[in-house]
Amino acid sequence: MNRGGTKMTKRQLTLYFGPQHIGMVGNFSITLTVEGDTIQKAVANPGFLHRGFEKMLENCTYTQGFPYVCRINVMDPDPCEQVYAMAIEELAGLEVPPRAQYLRTMALEMSRLSSHLLWLWAYANELGFDTIGHWAMAQRDYFIDLFDMITGARVYHIYIWPGGVRRDIPTGFAEKMQQTLAGLEDSLRDYDAVFFDNRVFRRRVDGVGVLSQEEALRFGVTGGNLRATGLERDVRKEEPYAAYAEMDFEVPTMVGGDSYARAMVIRKEMEQSVFIVRQVLDKMPAGSAWRRPPNPFKWNIPAGETYVRMESARGELGVYAVSDGTDKIYRMAYRVPSYPHGILVLEKLLQGMNIADVGHMLLSLNVAAPEIDR
Amino acid sequence: MREEAIKQGIEQRYESCLVTVPREKRVIISLPKDSLFSLIAFMKEQGFQHLSLITCVDWIKEGKFELVYHLATYQDGIHAIVKTRIDRANPTYQSMIPLFAHAQTYEREIHEMFGVEFVGNARLTPFLLTNWQEIPPMRKDFDTKEYSERMFEHE
């Protein structure tokens, strides 16, 4: 093309991906500079879901914060409650009864499973496997039903509470849980046959979006994305919290660090979560599910600071909490796993990729927009 | 205990440093701002290869911002909290990008939410907020109630 005497050999376009997109979990936008179908540059724009939770927590008493923190990650809310409760317990020196630790472990694994199933829905949909997406979404709903049964809420459970959990499991819950787990195991075989072992899927994802182990470490990536590069690192093993020290489970890893490896890590983790929940049901000690903390309206927590961490569905989730001895937290900073891989790693991987892989990459990295924005 | 060994190693090298081991797998280090960069570089060599989080605490009564760097080892999972205080009236500090590439995003957020300038970070562009005209919102003197009453009509 010849325009005004300057010969243009390149034609670059700016494209806006999101903040609304069918394959995206939460609102997130990426500004793409493309040439033909190839991405030259990607700039991630978070902030569409910024609700200012860390600021709001400073104006709340300790128990008033729970309805906010679970909303930090819409797909995986219970870990956000767990770290918040862990931070309060550590600052206040509050003990948690053993039964509550088991119930917490169960709730956390249920949350991991429902997050992974929601991921499978979105990821499969993004790659054109609509059927498997619907199956996964339906399977997730059975876990949501179980949450409904123990907490009375479907999405935001506010189940984990300082000193334990809000209530014990109702009668008939264990049987229903066993049925749901068996159902998931059946479904996993179907997912393998239709999706994970499918040649079409393999050809679509093999070698796409490779994140090497050096790069992953350089960018502070944790969780499944790091395990997909071959490094076995899991906070549940490294620094066990809740009842994980008494659980027997494996930490699945893959090599390659591509979209396939990341998907397989999540696939294998679902199996491990099923094992963990079964062990919780088998070994759960009797006793109280909650040790009552002091009057929440007059609960002054001694001045101090702490960092607590755990493994959420996406990686290391932590809280740095500073108390100044009053009934409100002085500062609470969330370390969210999507933060490193949702901005810099995503921008880096998208460079040179095809436009069709943008949604795929967001889901392959399992980016949760609400937890980046908080 | 490995935590105690880390404590001694740092105390020998940096005299102005205050190191505590509050519990297993935690080390809290506070030191003057001049030696922070060199300490973090030293710790990175000693195995603290994972920068987990950078955050900021506004100590408004003391007139200080506290920058808090969270480092961890991959081998034994020891988590170190490294803190330094900078002047609140002139909040400028050097960027950690030469040591950890992804410090960029954390510094971007602290720049936006607390107004701290990081020298050496070329990307201190708006991050989570849009067209923000007020003082940085995570500062303790930012009044959320007054702001929302002014911005949004209410009866």
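qc> The mean pLDDT of chain A is 87.
qc> done
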